[in-house]
Design brief:
Blueprint (H helix, E strand, L loop, with lengths): L3 H20 L12 H29 L2 H25 L3 H16 L8 H4 L9 H7 L7 E4 L3 E4 H13 L8 H18 L1 H10 L3 H17 L9 H9 L31
Antiparallel strand pairs: 1-2
């Protein structure tokens, strides 16, 4: 039995329960972030974990391995993601995109040597970015409160429920034997974090308050992803916030997904990015 999966799900659930308890007695005045005190504490924890362990390992990984090998690792895990991206596009009713995603998997798994080579992109099949949180958003489910989960990083309540489904469906997290599974997960984590190293400087230079910057960037990015880059017009106050985050366009196209800012675990690829 996979003991890692229940542990992760339990951790995410406990974090949400704690957030829910705190929401009743501590409000920041920001309707999008009603439990800011809790979230800042978790953000600081994740930042410390990243600074002490994950980032140094990712930096060494980036320095030692040649770029073609790192690209192959990113492509391999991205190919696994494409299968579930296709499922989510199907659930959202985006049939052409779903068939394109599944076509990517077929081409890259065979001609692309299990996804190490991204032949599908060269063939004109665009890579998409979908997950269960986005699917819930397309179905009309609201964000819920913003919450920072230990290790997993920034989420909303809706995206946390989606995360649980993402992890349940993740073939890497459920792979056996245990040794191969653990190696694959560590490799995916380190590779994903290495792909985000270049974005660190952008965040550090742009943010007077890194927590607020990451929170607003995350919420903006998720809104754009749910609406495929064409979100409905918001109020002027919201638009002012969006304008202040225009620098985030530089963070939107890392090749592997990992939650940005205070998040150290790559669960389902994509840099965790900002697309």
């Amino acid at each position: 039995m996979n003991k890692t999966l229940p542990t992760r799900l339990k951790s995410a659930t406990l974090a949400l329960l704690a957030a829910g308890l705190l929401a009743g007695c501590a409000s920041s005045g920001n309707p999008k972030d009603p439990i800011e005190g809790f979230n800042r504490a978790m953000f600081a924890f994740n930042e410390g974990l990243d600074s002490l362990i994950v980032k140094p390992v990712a930096t060494g990984y980036d320095a030692v391995l040649p770029s073609p090998i790192r690209t192959g690792v990113t492509n391999f895990f991205g190919n696994i993601d494409d299968l579930f991206i296709g499922v989510n596009n199907l659930l959202q009713g985006k049939i052409p995109e779903a068939f394109s995603d599944l076509g990517r998997v077929a081409i890259n798994t065979t001609i692309g040597l299990l996804g190490v080579l991204d032949i599908a992109t060269d063939a004109g099949l665009e890579k998409h970015n979908e997950d269960f949180g986005q699917t819930f958003g397309r179905w009309g489910v609201g964000n819920g409160a913003y919450v920072v989960i230990p290790v997993f990083g920034p989420r909303t309540v809706r995206d946390t429920v989606g995360l649980v489904l993402d992890v349940q469906a993740d073939p890497v997290a459920n792979h056996r034997p245990k040794g191969e599974r653990d190696f694959a997960q560590v490799l995916r984590l380190v590779n994903g974090r290495a792909n985000l190293l270049a974005a660190d400087k952008v965040v550090e230079e742009a943010a007077l308050d890194k927590y607020s910057y990451v929170r607003d960037a995350y919420l903006q990015r998720r809104r754009n992803l749910i609406h495929d880059g064409n979100p409905p017009r918001e109020s002027e106050a919201s638009l002012d916030t969006d304008r202040s985050l225009s620098v985030d366009a530089r963070l939107e196209e890392p090749r592997a997904e990992a939650p940005s800012g205070g998040a150290v675990l790559v669960v389902r690829m994509e840099p965790v990015d900002t697309k």
